[in-house]
Structure formats: structure tokens, C-alpha cells
User: Fold ABC transporter ATP-binding protein from Sedimentitalea xiamensis.
Amino acid sequence: MTTFLEIRDLTMRFGGLMAVDHLSFTVEHGQIHGLIGPNGAGKTTTFNMISGFYKPTSGQVLLRGEDISGLKTHEVARRGVVRTFQHSTLFAELTVLENALVGTHMPFRPNIFAAIVGWDKEDRIGAEARAREALEFFGLDHLAGERAGDLSHGHQRALGMAVAYASHPDVVLLDEPFTGMNPEETRRMMGLMRNLRDSGITILLVEHDMQAIMGLCDTITCMSFGKFLAEGGPKEIRNHPAVIEAYLGGARHVA
Ligand SMILES: Nc1ncnc2c1ncn2[C@@H]1O[C@H](COP(=O)(O)OP(=O)(O)OP(=O)(O)O)[C@@H](O)[C@H]1O
Ligand SMILES: [Mg+2]
Assistant:
């Protein structure tokens, strides 16, 4: 059987710095797969390579056996792999619904404003139905007409996921979705992620909130200084000497 998503020998060099250094791991379909490691370990850079924002220095990203490394972001999105950002990238001035509409258009055109203005009527109706479905999935339908910038932090994060969901993804890459959330928002977001997984979407999750990681992930890969360090279920990773050492060795986030 072909592996669903395989990161193979993935490497990103910035000048003299090996941000990601021959990293290999595989992600199974339908799982929540965590990618953890201390600050600067190379997690976001790995996401940038998987999602097409960076072209790897070397190595491959294989989706169902197809090498997608080096494709443009919208080409990667068209194959079902989309990401959200570590720092919010919502269009604050647009409404919640308009943001979700941008999501429906993500796989087709890199220019997002075409998503709002440049459609014929039929496309627009189909996209709007999908956008509304995404808002409903994330409990945001009652906020469709609000300006995105006016939403609470938790709702903005949920909208970020709704935007990704609106594009019909197979895989979503979530970079620190729990940052800045209060316990209630965290609890709700964990529920949304489980719903997302249970709907058949594979989730690759970068997060420093260890309770969320341990509570959600089926499998966890830990990296440090760009390199693969360890992999296993939550229990295994929580007790893994190399993981504990990596976090205690100078990182501000301690598991
Ligand atoms: N565009 C870039 N140019 C140069 N160096 C970069 C660039 N992006 C990241 N780096 C460096 O690459 C290393 C890995 O960074 P990355 O952002 O991937 O880490 P991270 O694991 O996501 O960290 P954090 O948990 O703090 O978000 C760091 O040393 C960082 O300073
Ligand atoms: Mg990061």
C-alpha cells in the first residue's frame, strides 16, 4: 500500500543554517499527527516545505506516492494539502463569510481577491454553499456577516480552520492553533479538531501546548535542531528520555 504522506530526507538550508536536516517521517491517513520540538527546531519550516511556501534544498514530500515538493502552494492545495499559519492571516476587513470564500478558492488561483470579485454567478453560488458549510462545521455560521477582525481570538482561530476546510482538504497543517487561547477556547478547539479528523481529514499539528498535543494526537514526531529525534504515541513520547532532554535543554516551553 502506498504511504499517505511521506516526508523523505527533507532538508532546508538558510545560508549556513540547517533549519531542517534530512528529516524523514510518515503520516497515516485519518490521524492527528503531532510535530513537536523546542523553539527553532524547524517545525514551521517543515510546514512551509510541505505546503509549497518553500522549495526544499533537498529531499521529497510524497503524497500518495506523488512527489509534491517544489510545487506552488495552490498546486499543493489542489492536491488536498492546506495549511493555516502560526500567526493569524485572516483578512480582518473582510467578513467571516468572505474569508471562508477565499478558502474555497485557494486551490484554484493564487490571487485571493479574485475569490471575492472575479467569479461568474454559478461558481459563486457553489462556493458560497461550501463556505457556509465550513462556517457551520466550526460553529461560526451565526457570525457570517461580522467583520473577521472583530471576532474573539478563539473564533478567529476557528475561522482560520474553516478557511482551510472550505477548500476540501485531505490534509490540514495547523501551526500552533492553540496559542493565546484560554482553557475554554482550547477545549472547544480540541473538539473541533477531533470532528475534523472524524470527518476523514488528516491533521498534521504543530503545537507547544503539551496537554493539547497529548490529548489529541494519534502519533507524535519530535524534532530538534532540524533533525528527527523520536516518534511514538503520546505516552511513549511523554516518557522518552531524548524528548525530555531536548525540552529541558534550554527551551522556554517545557512539557
Ligand atoms: N526564512 C528564514 N531565513 C533564515 N532562517 C530562518 C528562516 N525561517 C526560519 N529560520 C531559522 O530556521 C530555524 C527553524 O525555524 P522554524 O521557524 O522552522 O522553527 P520552529 O520549530 O517553527 O520554532 P517555533 O516553535 O519557535 O515556532 C530557526 O533557527 C530559524 O531562526
Ligand atoms: Mg514555528
